[in-house]
Amino acid sequence: MTTPSPFSRRSQVFPTLPRGDVLGTYETYPEAQAVVDRLAKAEFPIKQVSIVGSGLKTVERVTGKLTNAKAAGAGAASGAWLGLFFGLILFLFSAEPSSFVFVGAAVLIGGGFGMIFSLVSYALNRRRHDFTSINQVLASQYEIIIDPSLTIRAQELLARPQPTE
Questions:
Q1: pLDDT > 50? residue 149
Q2: Which of 1, 3, 91, 160 is the most exposed, fewest CB within 10 Å of its CB?
Q3: Is 61 helix (H, G, I), strand (E, B) or coil?
Q4: How many degrees, rounded to 5, is the angle at CA 129 between CA 124 and CA 133?
Q5: What is the number of other CB atoms lying within 10 angstroms of the CB of residue 69?
């Protein structure tokens, strides 16, 4: 029985870390991505390449203070979108030409319910989370892992001077 290559489709059934040679280590994802883009432009088989981030950290960037007005506005907007969706579905499956009024009503009702639910949720969680933020997962370094049979070819391609555009 043969063992599938770490870069074959079969190995993607169960998530595993790619194995192979480390072509390079970079501090940022865009740096690693630029190397892979360069290989792709040189007609390199990039299906045999992986970018692996390590040293993962969760970063929460605070974007502002959460107030009743912001919570109500966000809830109303979210509810209005949901109301628009359901209103359009009702309109599409209705035989009445005047059923477009249902779309407006659904937007208003959805916005109202969204605002109420958002304000109640904000009131219940106010002491725990009184700000808005964006969560990100970042790596401290990124390695390009490559199939060992292609390492020399990739190194030669990367050693060539880049053509100026």
A1: yes
A2: 1
A3: strand
A4: 135
A5: 9
My answer on whether 52 and 73 are in the same domain is no
Q: Do 131 and 68 reside in the same domain of the chain?
A: yes
- Tell me the angle at which helices 29-41 and 151-159 cross, rounded to the nearest 10 degrees: 100
> 14 is in which domain, residue-wise?
10-56+139-159
**CB atoms inside a 10 Å sphere around CB 114:** 22
For the beta carbon of residue 36, count every other beta carbon within 10 angstroms.
17
Tell whether the model's pLDDT for residue 46 goes beyond 80.
yes
Number of structural domains found in the chain = 2
Q: Is residue 3 part of a domain?
A: no
Measuring CA to CA, which residue among 4, 19, 13 is closest to residue 50?
A: 19
Q: Between vectors from CA 43 to CA 41 and to CA 48, what angle results, nearest 5°?
A: 105
- Backbone dihedral angles phi then psi of residue 118, each to the nearest 5 degrees: -65, -40
41 and 75 both lie in a single domain: no
Q: Tell whether the model's pLDDT for residue 96 goes beyond 80.
A: no
